[in-house]
Amino acid sequence: DAMVIQNPRYQVTQFGKPVTLSCSQTLNHNVMYWYQQKSSQAPKLLFHYYDKDFNNEADTPDNFQSRRPNTSFCFLDIRSPGLGDAAMYLCATSRAPIETQYFGPGTRLLVL
Amino acid sequence: ELKVEQNPLFLSMQEGKNYTIYCNYSTTSDRLYWYRQDPGKSLESLFVLLSNGAVKQEGRLMASLDTKARLSTLHITAAVHDLSATYFCAVERNTDKLIFGTGTRLQVFP
What we know:
The complex is a heterodimer.
Chain A: E1 4-7, E2 10-13, E3 19-25, E4 31-37, E5 44-50, E6 53-56, E7 64-67, E8 73-78, E9 87-94, E10 102-103, E11 107-111
Parallel strand pairs in A: 2-11
Antiparallel strand pairs in A: 1-3, 3-8, 4-5, 4-9, 5-6, 7-8, 9-10, 9-11
Chain B: E1 4-7, E2 10-14, E3 19-25, E4 32-37, E5 43-49, E6 55-58, E7 61-66, E8 71-76, E9 85-93, E10 97-100, E11 104-109
Parallel strand pairs in B: 2-11
Antiparallel strand pairs in B: 1-3, 3-8, 4-5, 4-9, 6-7, 7-8, 9-10, 9-11
């Protein structure tokens, strides 16, 4: 089945230790998104790729970076995680920017 | 700046009852989505509403869109426990991004 896959599902890291979250998709969608969702809050868009074009949200901290080496994969790098970065990180894809987004299962990040 | 608000934020309802969740947004948009999220899980797409007056139904859920009033509703008919979840509306911004509402946490009890 076509799907959006995120690895790992749970990630524990230490304060200040870089971490990378992975997202892959078999939908062959052009757009890939990264959201941060904290407990009892709405998902907050960090950035997205439309093909190879990177679009950063104005309020995304510099601590967060992303890479999309090919259509299928997208990575979220957190260079120096702080306690406030503990959250669920959701990857989503869509065929085009204005079409329905399909979400992966998420990676829950814990920062110690 | 586009703002999306939902009410109520929390909804506890008895099985078999009907209720409506409201989603208001602050600037013009012609596309609105409803998503469901179970605790600790990801978001599942429920409906996409593409034009003024659009109505979509799936099982006990029915969504509608009034673009002139900048309002969407999600109506629950004869609620069952399996509908317990958090429901988000999301509005398209600049044709390439979604802005999510605050979410409505629904709990259905016997």
